[in-house]
Structures are given as C-alpha cells and as structure tokens.
Amino acid sequence: MPLVLRPFRLLTSLLMAAAAALAAVPAAAQFAMVPSPLLATPQASEATTDADYRKDAAKHLYAAYPMRIFKGRMPPLLYGVMIVDTEIDVEGKIVDVKVRRPPAAPEVGPWVVAMIRKAAPFPAPTKMGKAVYTDIWLVHKSGNFQLDTLTEGQN
Questions:
Q1: What distance in Å separates the CA atoms of residue 105 and residue 139, rounded to the nearest whole number?
Q2: Does residue 19 register a pLDDT over 50?
Q3: Distance (Å, rounded) from C-alpha 147 to C-alpha 24?
Q4: What are the distances in angstroms from CA 28 to CA 50, 56, 144?
Q5: 70: Cβ contacts below 8 Å, ≥ 6 apart
Q6: With bands split at pLDDT 50, 70 and 90, how would you rate the model's confidence at 40?
Q7: What percentage of the chain has pLDDT greater than the value 90?
C-alpha cells in the first residue's frame, strides 16, 4: 500500500504546483503585449512649468490608450504602482524614460515604458523648451491603468 500512496502524493503535489503556476499566468499575460496607441498629432502645450505640463502629457496618454483606461475608482490592491520620469524635447519627442520607482510586478515596468515610448510624440512644450513629465502609474491586474494626475481615486 505505501508504494501506491507515494506516487499519488507526488502526482498530487505536481498538480497543485501546476495549478498555482497557472493561477499566476493570467495577470502576467496581460502585460506580454504592448497595445498600439491611437495617435493623433498633439497640439503644442501652453505649459510654462513641468507641473503644468504634467496634465497635458497625462491627457495625451489617455487619448492614446482609451481602451486601457480603468473606469471608475481603482480597487484597494493594485497589481503595479510605479513612478516614471519622461524627458520630452521642444518638439514633443522623447529624450529619455526613467523608472524612478519600479513596480512590485516586474512585467509591468517594461510594459509601461514601452507604452510611453509608443505614444510619442507628446504635446510639444514650446514655451519651456523641454519638459520632464513625472507621473505615477496605477496599474490593475487586467492591464488597465490610471495616471495619478487624472485618477478617479481608489476604494
């Protein structure tokens, strides 16, 4: 009888490990492909400070990814929260994207950076010469997000 139980226990352990691994896949799979942005030529920004420019850049990202905006208040536990600095030149082109605070879920960071890069050009900060757009990305496990600048809040 003990010979029968050992393979059964091993099989049970393997099935439980496989089930746990599969349970983690759906959330991570949402970040395997970067969505294509809906791009229109952005109007130049009238901002005179980085703080003013922040709202123009956030609106640009929302217009680029309307299908990925989380509607309503965010849930209390988020899949990823990250702070990103994006340096924009006078023409609205991206000079650099730096992750200031990486998310706990490692797949979210490259996904967000790629979305930012694909959304270029940004509104040209013509009155400033260049801008550093800093925002906090609030990312749901579904692959939808809100930006702190335009967030509807959190439950």
A1: 10
A2: no
A3: 25
A4: 33, 30, 13
A5: 138, 140, 142, 144, 145, 146
A6: confident
A7: 75
What the block records as the tokens of 129 is 């010469």
**If 0-12 CB within 10 Å is exposed, 13-18 middle and 19+ buried, where does residue 136 land?**
middle
* Amino acid, single-letter form, for residue 139: V
C-alpha pair distances (Å), 90 with each of 52, 63, 71, 148: 15, 21, 32, 24
Per residue in 71-118, pLDDT (tens digit) is: 999 999 999 999 999 999 999 999 999 999 999 999 999 999 999 999
Place of tokens 């703080």: 51
Residue in the structure block whose two tokens are 């952005």: 42
**How many other C-beta atoms are found inside a 10 Å radius of the C-beta of residue 45?**
24
The number of beta carbons lying within 10 Å of the beta carbon of residue 142 is: 12
Q: Going from the N-terminus, what domains does the chain have, and what CATH number goes with each?
A: 31-150 (3.30.1150)
Whole-number Å distance between alpha carbons of 89 and 56: 14
